[in-house]
Amino acid sequence: MWICFVGDSLVNGTGDPEYLGWTGRICAAARKAGRDITCYNLGVRRETSADIRACWLREVSRRLPAGCDGGVVFSFGINDTTWEGGAPRVAVADSVEHTRRILITARRRFPVLMIGPSPVTDAKQNLRIAGLSRRFAFICRELEVPYLEVFTPLAASETWMREVAANDGSHPGSAGYSELARLVQDWPPWLSWFK
Question: What are phi and psi of 87, to 5 degrees?
Fold first, then answer.
């Protein structure tokens, strides 16, 4: 199976001294379990839902040609909630619309999964992230796209929050990414891709 991971710096694995992030870890685990996969990490720092909407299909289509056994995993949202110039970088209504359009288009062409945004150290931004995650979950239920809410378990994780605080306030180190990877690799919709 060929898999594209589309999103932001958390998809990219920024901050991980091992340069694996959660995507590298779940792909390594899948390979170790005997699954034949090709993984493409399309995580870009500072990408918002607007940025991803503008380019994801072109990038994914180059890597998942017609007829291949391929799927797409989306994960973004934190950058939408970042406060710049007196407002979030992307308004909530726009984030919702971008995400809806991305997922409608994606599910017509590929198997699709979505991983929610993770917590940061800024309490006010976390309120915005948690709210956006709830909206993403609603969109995914409506469109029948499996959604993994990771904000709550990671906000309760001492490892995640400690590593994010020790780094730049948004990105963990290797132990934090390992925690996120465990949430994804044990998730039934992810496992169902390999049956």
Answer: -160, 165
Number of domains in the chain: 1
d(CA 59, CA 112): 15
pLDDT digits (tens, 9 = 90+) for 30-57: 999 999 999 999 999 999 999 999 999 9
| Domain contains 30 | yes
Q: Decide if 70 contacts 3 (C-beta within 8 A).
A: yes
Compute the residue count for the chain.
195
Burial class of 78 by CB neighbour count within 10 A (0 to 12, 13 to 18, 19+): buried
Query: What's the pLDDT score for residue 72?
Result: 98
Domain that holds residue 82: 2-188
Asked, for residue 143, whether it belongs to a domain, the answer is yes
- Spell out a b/e string for 11-45, using b for 16 or more CB atoms within 10 Å of the CB, else e: bbbbbbeeebbbbbbbbeebeeeeeebebbbbbbe
Can you say how many angstroms the Cα of residue 30 is from the centroid of all Cα atoms in its chain? 18
Q: What is the pTM of this model?
A: 0.98
In a domain, 195, yes or no: no
pLDDT of residue 195: 78
According to DSSP, residue 194 is labeled G
Whether residue 194 is contained in a domain is answered as no
CATH code at position 99: 3.40.50.1110
pLDDT in tens, 76-115: 999 999 999 999 999 999 999 999 999 999 999 999 999 9
